[in-house]
Amino acid sequence: xxxxxxxxxxxxxxxxxxxxxxxxxxxxxxxxxxxxxxxxxxxxxxxxxxxxxxxxxxxxxxxxxxxxxxxxxxxxxxxxxxxxxxxxxxxxxxxxxxxxxxxxxxxxxxxxxxxxxxxxxxxxxxxxxxxxxxxxxxxxxxxxx
Length: 145
Hints:
By secondary structure, the protein is mostly helical. The chain is 68% helix and 8% strand.
């Protein structure tokens, strides 16, 4: 029964709080970089997904970010204006716009990744392999419901 103590409300609340702080710190690490390029957290979220899923459509991006088209439009306009992203029409359906990182966008996302990687790398390096595998398993289950 002791093994299930982590399922008590107090422990779950503590876990949620730790997830929040881990997210906050990971996304605040590149703050100076974001400021240098005059972009914010909303831009960072979009850039991360565009970097990971090169060529995704606007609809796919909206779905992954779980935001409105209006909210995303402002972010994409600014990223496009600053030459961080490019659009290409779909080959099968020209009504679909596909989003890609430009050369400047790749430079920016790499700079951000290198900054965020420091914290994650240090945490992974200072954890045993079982802890990392278990953590990954739990995170995937949280993400996928």
